[in-house]
Amino acid sequence: MAEEESAYLIRPPSADDVEALGALHCRVWQEAYVGLMDEESFAALTPHRFAQGWGRRLVPEESGEAGPNLLQDGRSARGEQVAVAEHGGQLVGFISVGPAREDDGPTDTQLWAINVVAEHYGTGVAQALLDEVLGDRPAYLWVADGNDRAIRFYQRNGFRLDGATATDREDGLVETRMVRS
Questions:
Q1: Number of H helices, E strands in the chain
Q2: 41-87 confidence digits (pLDDT tens)
Q3: Considering the domain 5-60+68-135 in this protein, what is its CATH number?
Q4: Which of 36, 59, 117, 133 would suit a FRET pair with 72, their CA atoms being 20 to 30 Å apart?
Q5: Whole-prediction pTM
Q6: Distances from the Cα of 143 to the Cαs of 1, 54, 55, 80, 148, in angstroms?
Q7: Taking a C-beta distance cutoff of 8 angstroms, is the pair 10, 85 a contact?
Q8: How far is CA 155 from the centre of its chain?
Q9: Burial of residue 55 (number of CB atoms within 10 Å: 0-12, 13-18, 19+)
């Protein structure tokens, strides 16, 4: 599908997006991580599981208090910024950028996630998300080892593999770090 970038609406997520984001997030992982995660963890991926996580980040607690992870207008108190990409009334991608999660991160900013459904690969939507939220700031990210398409995308955007690797204790996913100075 070769849609024009202008056909995408980039906006902050809202509480109304919880279920759609859960389905999107699950679908993206099922498309991108097949064969890269351990089979049991891969089989356990469900839209409901992902929607629960998005619900904690987008729906205020009954007390009305906004915790550090709650996103309001796409931003959290801890410094995270999230945007979604919408096309034809459907969510097709999202990005999350925030402060470094590691104490010894190579930069102060980390690209936590950028995910786009496979049918929108090559349309420019991932680039639009990256440009909108991260811009050309120095940052680092962790990418699944074997996700060559993502690695090439990041390399086109100035990120370079720095040799650091990590294995997720829960799902067996091996990740490689990329840095842009």
A1: 5, 7
A2: 999 999 999 999 999 999 987 655 667 888 999 999 899 999 999 99
A3: 3.40.630.30
A4: 117
A5: 0.91
A6: 25, 21, 25, 18, 9
A7: yes
A8: 17
A9: middle
